[in-house]
Each structure stands twice: as C-alpha cells, then as structure tokens.
Amino acid sequence: MLHQMEWDLFDNGLGGSMEDPPDISESSQSKPSSTNISEHEFSCHCCYDILVNPTTLTCGHNFCRHCLALWWESSHKNECPECREKWEGFPKINILLRDATDKLFTEVVQRRREEIQANPKTSRSLLAFQRYGDNLGRSRTNQHKGAGFFFSGVLTALTCVAVIVLVYHWSSGVVEQQDMLISKSVSHWTTEEVVSWLELLGPWAQLYREPFQQENVNGRLLLMLGDEELLKPPYSIENQAHRRAILAELDRVKVLGVKPPHNLWEYKVTNAGKSLFLLYALKRSPRLTLFYLYLFDYAETFLPFLHTCCPAITHIGQSMESSFLNAQLEPSWRQWGEFLVKYLLLPYQLIAEFAWDWLAVHYWTSRFIIVNAMLLSVLEGCALWRLWSRARIRSLPRKMWNHLWKMLSQGFAFALLWPFVPQFVCNCLFYWALYFSPIINIDLVVQQLMHPETQAL
C-alpha cells in the first residue's frame, strides 16, 4: 500500500518526465496537499482516528499501537481486533507508515501523542505490551539454550529428594512398626504394640511401661481400662494429668479403631486420598480447604491444626502432658481471633507455622513446605496488587465466585475418580506436589517480581 501511494504521488507530479519537465504553474497545481488525501486511509480501525505509531499485523491490518495494547490486555488474545486472525511473533511499528502519517497529519498526531502520554492506563498497557514482547523474544532466543539445563536441574533435584526420602524410610525401623499400629485394629494389638503406643504419648508415659508389660495388657484389655482401673494397682497412676492424657488418647483410639496418626507419613498411610486432596487444595485455595476441615474433619484434623498454629497461653514450666490435654480442648476466643485474622489475610502463614512446629519430626519436608508457603504468599500478594493497580478490584467478587465453582467441581471430580487411580500414580502426584512445587513457584515469583505489570496470556 505504501509503495502504491508513493508511485501515485510520483505520477501526479512529484516525479514527472525528465525530458519534458512541467512549468512552475503546472507543478504547483498538481502538487498534493494533506487536504487532498482521505483521512480514512490513515485511520485506525479501533479508535477511528489518525494512526499513532501504526502497527501492522500479519493479516495486513494497521492499528495504533496503544489501541492494540489495550485490546491485548483486555482480550488476552494474540489476534487481530478486526478479522480475528492470530498474529505471529510480536507486532512491530510500521516505520514507513509512521513517517507518512507524521508528515501528512503533524498536528493531529502530536496532539494524540500528548493525550496518550497523559493517560496512565494507556501508558501502563503499552509498557506491559512491550515487556510481553521482550519476554517473548528472550524466551525464543534462549529456548534451546536453557531448556536442557532447566530440565536436567529439575531431574537432579527430584533424584536427590527421592534418595533422601527412600534412605529415611529404609533406615527407620520405627516407621514400619507405627504403620502396623495405624493399620491394625486396636482389638488385635499385642502387649508389645500396646507398650509402643503408650511410649508415643511422651517421655512421661515411659514411667508406666513396666505395669503394662507385667499385666500383659493387649488391645482388648486396653479398651476396658478406665479412670478407676488406672488409679488402682498394679498401674497406680496417681497423677491426675497423666490419667487424663492416657484416657483422652484412649478415647481417640476407641473412636478410630486404630492408633491415630502422629506425623505426616502416618496420616498419608491412613488417609491416602485425603492427604493428596489436601496437599493440592491447600496450595490452590487454603481458605476453602481450612473451611472444609472445619465442617467435615473438625476433631481429628482442624482442632490440632488450630492449636498448633495458634497455641493457647502456656505458663513456664507447664508439663508435656498438660500441653497434650490442651490440644484436645476447645479453642479460646483469643485463639479464634488470632486464627481468623491469619485465615483471612495470611492463610499460607498458618501452613508455614504448622510445618515449623514439625521440624523435629520432618526435617527436610517441613522446610520444603515452609518455603512453598512463602512463595505462594508472594504470588497471592502480586495477584492482589495487579488487581488493585489496574483498577480491577471490583472484579474480585466475580473472580472469587469463579474460583469457588472451579474448586468445587475439581473436588467433586477428584472424589469420583479417586477409586480408579492406581496407588503408584497417587504417590507420584503426592511427592511431586510436595517437593517439586517450590521449584516451579520460585520461577513464577521471579517472573512476577521482575515484570510485575506483565500478565501472561
């Protein structure tokens, strides 16, 4: 089109015959002016005004660059606003067409450029659009260079994690015994298994190990014990706090029928499907997941979680058995207030505090969870800042409703498909989400911090 325009101008008098040059009067009459050219030929099909920094797409249509940036930001699509044909690569400014519009419509273009610079929304969209193009070009340049290094690093990290986990399980003989207790009915426990269960209550419970061994207390006898039996010989547990702690744990055993889990791996063995569901759900939507635990798993999961993250005020010198009993009581108003503030503002901090409390039991796993919680908090903050800076905070209720519907549908689909998923696949998904998610989130956080105004398509 530009070449045709130049030849038309050339034929109309700017480039006449060398042998028969026109006179001055004919030259002045045939010289075109901006009023003789239709503005429609140089207008944008989005704003219907003179093109400013005209950008030509692969389909041939021209648009103002700021109009194209606004369209890209609102539609999240790499396609022409007029014919909907997807463009290839990243659109560039048509230099010839820009120079032509600057010469023919100088005043109009200058006025429009000043208006664009004065509009913060348009300037922000142009900046985000240009950064998107820079990232696109950088990723294509380093595609072959960085892909192999990245995946080799990921493979190395996963291999190291797998070796650490396997060595931990193989070197720990107690785990196998605990797995037997949490999978074996309490009525079939032997005397040795009853003593092992008693020792798990804490160091204070080892004082009463010999009476249980001498009386050959098995699982059935354990279920028949009460406060009076524990107070009388041969048990002679005179400390009332000790008796209450043993009876509280015994009540849990009676309800569950097996030993309640005391760490992450035991919980995974007894609740394979729920552990996988909670691992992914806490990452995607921690508030809805904690609310789900409050409604459907209050005593076994939610209550210990709340007491761990928001502990009650303890006095100096308080015994371990008293702390054990406090974890079974209803939370105080102070605990509920602290929990609700963290629940609404920093839900991932609750998960990090829970993992921090288990550092002595799960050394490396707790650190992975803490790092992942910190990264997810940063990503959530970046998402809220993007909504606020782009004046889209009003769309937050609609996004929350869409998120709620998405989580409910995914949870329903998980409940239907769970019986058909092999256990090996579930274990792979579990360890993938537990150890590999922080690696992915680190890359996402770096992208958000380096280019906070760039929104991925």
Give the end-to-end Cα distance, rounded to a whole number of Å: 32 Å
How many domain regions? Answer: 3
The helix/strand class is mainly alpha
Count of helical regions: 23
Order of helices and strands: HHEEHEHHHHHHHHHHHHHHHHHHHH
Give me the count of strands: 3
In round numbers, the mean pLDDT is 76
**Shape call:** elongated
Question: How big is the Rg?
Answer: 35 Å
* Strand arrangement, major sheet: 2-1-3
**Which residues sit in consecutive blocks of at least 5 with pLDDT less than 50?**
1-34, 143-148, 173-178
Strand content: under 5%
Oligomer: single chain
Q: Mind describing the biggest β-sheet?
A: 3 strands, antiparallel
**Helix coverage percent of residues?**
55-70%
Supply database-style keywords.
single chain, 457 residues, mainly alpha, Herpes Virus-1, DNA polymerase, domain 1, 3-stranded antiparallel sheet, 23 helices, 3 strands, 68% helix, elongated, disordered N terminus, Znf_RING/FYVE/PHD, zinc, membrane
